[in-house]
DNA sequence: TAAAAAAGAACGATCGTTCGTTTTATTATC
DNA sequence: GATAATAAAACGAACGATCGTTCTTTTTTA
């Protein structure tokens, strides 16, 4: 029975996925044609289609693998003992994300931007992504809990909101680094310390107000 | 000589651009066809093409107008007297961005994500965007300077880095709100205060170290 | 040798764009 | 002031290019 071995099959899939990554980040998700991927992979159309049923499947695989790659990368930081303080933590996470770029010429940040964009019209991709980021934010909540226990975050702080702020900082780094290219993890963490000054009484009362009211603002016409 | 008036011309352009916005955010930049835009604009193909030379032109116009719309929206906050404290400032900016969504069903955040993605392969768009965000960050630097003068940010902080951190938080909010949808300006600002605790001596030394070394980390295989 | 795997030419669908025609609105003429 | 002349503006069918995918043929391998 002439059937290819499981290792060979996995290798072929990886070969095609790598080609897809290369093309996607070079041209974008929609601008890369199947022919681009086929030629880059070194295989034929028939071969590629016998491993991935459609282009959408390939897009999903590319984004999913980048997400799980990110997960694997950041995981060690999340469970480090002792847990680094917030600034240090943000520094480590963003530096790790930035460092991924070096690896084989792939840029995790670019794939992330492409994925976010695509997720808005691709329901399956959106669900996958939502699940991933929600899970990641849960992990961040655990981190905040740990900070509370060790006293670096005060007990009164909202765990959910703090995790949201953390995630914003990390995601924002990805965007800014991808678009402007002149930010690094050190600058971000350093800039964060600049924002971290003790509350004045006026700020305290503003915080209390903030959670109750919704900002009503005149929105100018386009 | 039957020539349309300048107002009529501008109105037609606005009509087409509005149709493009609607389609782009519903289907994405590449998935919307010119026929989509043409039909929702209520005009003919020939008419649309006499106002915008190509689809790329329309994409650029859509993204550019969303950027300048954002600018106009945020500008009042930047020059407010007195300038709100950091948390309050972030709250106002993000609330304004979020509030834009309500306006006519257009979601500024979605267009932003689409634009970032497209900017990676469209050189003209990338240049436009870069210029916009750099200018915006300069404005943020001025804000940080003002904070320093009023004492809410300590003198030793780096203006550039603090502005980068600020921009990250804002951009991250846009991403998180667009993908997860369960964040609001209040949660973000509130979460930021949770991160804002006084330095311990250990953190101080970590900051000093951070700016000098580059993180060397083993990046696992995909 | 037999069946799975790879190849690659070919297909139908769809895209962005064009271009010959029709409509519309302004000006010149009587 | 009604009408004819005129040119911009709008129309929309049609085109060429290109896309994702299929399917028959050839090659490979257990």
TrEMBL record, chains A, B:
Q: Which residues bind DNA?
A: 33-52
The parts of the chain that form a coiled coil are none
Highest taxon of the lineage: Bacteria
Enumerate the SUPFAM superfamilies for this protein: Homeodomain-like (SSF46689), Tetracyclin repressor-like, C-terminal domain (SSF48498)
Keyword field contains Repressor: yes
What are the HTH tetR-type domain coordinates in residue numbering? 10-70
A molecular function (GO) term: transcription cis-regulatory region binding
Checking InterPro entries in the record gives: BetI_C (IPR039538), Homeodomain-like_sf (IPR009057), HTH-type_TetR-like_transc_reg (IPR050109), HTH_TetR (IPR001647), Tet_transcr_reg_TetR-rel_C_sf (IPR036271)
Keyword hit for Transcription: yes
This one is known as TetR/AcrR family transcriptional regulator
Q: Which organism is it from?
A: Bosea caraganae
């Amino acid at each position: 029975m002439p059937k290819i071995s499981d290792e060979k099959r996995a290798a072929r899939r990886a070969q095609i996925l790598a080609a897809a990554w290369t093309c996607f980040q070079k041209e974008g998700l929609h601008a890369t044609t199947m022919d681009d991927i086929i030629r880059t992979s070194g295989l034929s159309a028939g071969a590629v289609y016998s491993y991935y049923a459609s282009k959408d499947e390939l897009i999903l695989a590319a984004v999913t693998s980048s997400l799980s790659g990110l997960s694997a990368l950041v995981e060690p930081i999340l469970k480090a003992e002792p847990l680094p303080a917030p600034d240090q933590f943000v520094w480590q996470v963003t530096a790790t994300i930035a460092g991924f770029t070096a690896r084989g010429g792939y840029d995790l940040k670019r794939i992330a931007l492409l994925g976010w964009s695509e997720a808005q019209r691709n329901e399956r991709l959106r669900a996958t992504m939502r699940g991933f980021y929600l899970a990641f934010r849960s992990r961040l909540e655990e981190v905040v809990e740990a900070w509370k226990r060790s006293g670096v975050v005060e007990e009164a702080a909202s765990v959910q909101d703090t995790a949201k702020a953390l995630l914003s900082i990390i995601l924002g780094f990805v965007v800014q680094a991808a678009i402007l290219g002149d930010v690094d993890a050190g600058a971000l963490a350093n800039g964060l310390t600049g924002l971290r000054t003790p509350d004045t009484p006026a700020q305290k009362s503003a915080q209390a107000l903030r959670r109750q009211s919704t900002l009503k603002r005149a929105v100018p016409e386009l």
